[in-house]
From TrEMBL:
Protein name from the UniProt record: (Fe-S)-binding protein
Domain 4Fe-4S ferredoxin-type, chain residue ranges per copy: 290-320, 380-412
Classification lineage: Bacteria, Bacillati, Actinomycetota, Actinomycetes, Pseudonocardiales
PROSITE patterns xref list: 4FE4S_FER_1, 4FE4S_FER_2
Keywords linked to the UniProt accession: 4Fe-4S, Iron, Iron-sulfur, Membrane, Metal-binding, Oxidoreductase, Transmembrane, Transmembrane helix
Keyword Lipoprotein attributed: no
Organism from which the protein derives: Prauserella halophila
Chain spans, region Disordered: 720-740
Amino acid sequence: MGALQITLGVIGVAVSIAAWGVFVAAVIRQVRIIRLGQPDGTRYGPFVPRMKTLIKEFAAHTRMNKFRRVGPWHWLVMWGFLLGSLALFEAYGEIFDPHFAWPIIGHWAPWQLLLELLGIGTVAGGVALAIIRQANHPRRADRQSRFQGSNFAAAYFVEAVVIIEGIGILGVKTFKISSGIEDPALWSSFLTQPLAQILPASTAAVSIMALGKLLSGMLWLAVVSRYLTMGVAWHRFSAFFNIYFKREDDGGVALGALKPMMSGGKPLDFEEADPEQDVFGAGQVEDFSWKGWLDFSTCTECGRCQSQCPAWNTGKPLSPKMLITQLRDHAYAKAPYLMEGGKKDMAGDEIGLTGDDPHAGIDVLALAESERALIGDAEANGVIDPDMLWSCTNCGACVEQCPVDIEHVDHIVDMRRYQVMIESDFPTELNSLFKNLENKGNPWGQNAKDRMAWAEDLDFEVPVFDGEFGDAEYLFWVGCAGAFEDRAKKTTRAVAELLHLADVKYTVLGPEETCTGDPARRAGNEFVFQMLAQQNVEVLNSVFEDVEPAKRKIVVTCAHCFNTLANEYPDLGGNYEVVHHTQLLNRLVREKRLTPMAPVAQDITYHDPCFLGRHNQVYEAPRELADAAGANLREMPRHGDRSMCCGAGGARMWMEEQIGKRINVERVDEALGTAPSKIATGCPFCRVMLNDGVTSRQSDGTASEDLEVLDVSQLLLSAVKRDGDNEPAAADSEPEPAES
C-alpha cells in the first residue's frame, strides 16, 4: 500500500461518508414525505402473491418488455445496478490494495464471467438507452415523442453514471490482468483479457479505476439526495415497493373496478360521512393515499403512458406522465408545510398551524405552494388544469403500459370526485347526465316504460321477468344504450335473436332495469353511482333469490355494464357470473348450437372496446366470432392491449370534444387504413362513436358511403340466418366455460 493508494483511499472514504450520509437522510425524508398521504391498509398483504408478482415483474421484466426495443437494454442496466453494487463495494478494498478481491468468490471463474457480463451489459445498456432517447427526442417528433415533457438532464445524468460504472468494472478488471494480479480463463474474461494485452502493467491504474468507479456512484448518491423528485433515478429503489404495493394482489393492473372512494383508509359510507372530517376524493394533494404519493415518486418519465394516451395523441392537454409529475412536484414542494402540521379546511382557511407566528421556520416556497389549488387553470395558478383532468376517457392505456404500476385512472377519478361532489365544478354537459340518471335512471332521460321498445317488432316473444326466474339460464342485461339508442338496439335485437335460435333460456328485467351507474362513477359522481348500484343490486338479488350462487348468470352487450356488474357490484353485495355477449355467443358457436351457414366473406376490422379489452382482457372471443362468421379480419396498427380508445369512456360520451382532433375520428382514420368493408366492435358506446366518425369522414369524401359500423353479433346473425330460417343443432356435450 503506497502513498498514492492511501491518498486515493482516504479521498474515496471521505467522499463516501458524506455521500452515504446525505443519501440515508434523503431516504428517511422521502419515506416521511410519502407517509403524508392518507392511510390505505389494503396494500400490505397477502405477502406471497405480492412477492411473486414483484419477483416476476423485475426479474423477467414482464411489463418493461411491452416495449421490446427498450426492455432488453433496461434489463441489462437493472442487473448491472443490482449485482454491480458488489463490484462497487469491492472498490473500497481495491483502492487501498490493488490485489484485494472478495473472499472465496473473488478469483472464482464464474464470478469473473459475471463481472465481465455486468460491465459489458451496463455500458451497452446505458449507451443504447441514451441512443433511444435521442432517436425519440421531441425536437424531431414533437407530440409523437413519448419523452416530451421529460427531464432530459436527469435522464442523461443517470445514463452517464451507468456507463461510467460499467467502464469502471471493466477497467479495474483489465488492469488487474495486465498487472499480473489476476490470470482468469479467456472464457470468463473474453473482453478484458485481450484489452489487458495492449495496456501497460500498473497497480496504480487499478486503484485509480477503482476510485473512478466508486466516485461515480457517490456522485449519483449525492445528486439524487439533493433532488427527491428525480424519478428517473429514485425508481431504482421505489419501483420495487410500488410493484409490491400495487392495487391488485394477484398481479393484475389497476383496471376493471375503480378504487372505492376512501377516507381514513376505509371505504366511505355516505350515510355516516362527515364533510368536516372525511375526505371526498382528492381536493388537495394530501388527500391522495400514501400509495398515490409513492406513485408520484416512482414515475420514471419514460412516457409510455403518454405515447398510448388517446387524449394526448389527438392534441389535448392531458399527458398521464405530466399529470403524475406535476402532482409529484407539487407534493414535494408542499411537503415542508405539511410536515410542520399545516392544513386547510375546504374553505381554504388555515386550521393546522397556530400561534402568534404560525409560519415561522417554514420555507416560503412551501407556503406559496400550499396556497395553490389542486385543480385550476393557469390564471388560478392551479396544479392540474381542468381541461387536463376532464380529457381522460378512463381507457386505461396508461395503466396497462406503465412499467412501474402507477395507477393513473384511480388518481384522476379521485380528483373528479372532489370537483363534482364538493366543488360542483365540472363540464356543464354533465348536468343533464346527472339529472337524467337521478330522475330517469338512464343517461338519455327516457321513460322506464320504454325499455322494451327494442323488442316490439321481433317475431318471437322476449321473456320479461315476472317474479320467477324459472328455468332461465341467464338474465339478459340490456343496458341503457341497448334499450334506447337506435344503433345499439340493433345489437340488442341481434343478440336476442341469436339466443332464441340457440334455444338459450333467458329473461330480461324490462322496466325494472336501470343504469349501472358507470358514467356517473367515471365522471366522479360517486353518490349517484352508489344510489343506482345499490338499487340494482337489490333488484338483482331479488331476481336470483331462489337461484344458487353458482348459477346467477348475467349476459350483457355493453362493455361498461359488463365491467361494472362484474367488477364493482361485488363490493356492494352483488355477486354474479357476468359474461359478455361475445363470450356467450362464441361458446354457443363452439357447441354448434349456432351454426354459420352463409359466410360474411367481407374485409372486417375490429375495434377493441377499452372496457372489454384492457379492463377485462376479453380479446379473442369477438375475433373468433368474426372468424366464425366468415369475415376476413384486418387488424388496425393499434389493437389488443394497445387499442386506441373510441373516446366515449370516462363519461366523455356526454361531453363536448372541443380541443384538438376528435378521438373517434382519429380511430376511424386508423380503421380506414385497413380498407375495410365494415368496422366491427363489441360495445354500443364504441359503435355510436365510431359511427359518428365514419359519418364525418363520409361527409368529407374520405370514407365510402357503403362503410358501416356494426356489432360482431350482427355479423354472426347474418351468417347464421339463411333465408330467415335456421334450426340450431342440439348441443351434444356439456357447456364449456365462456372464453375470456
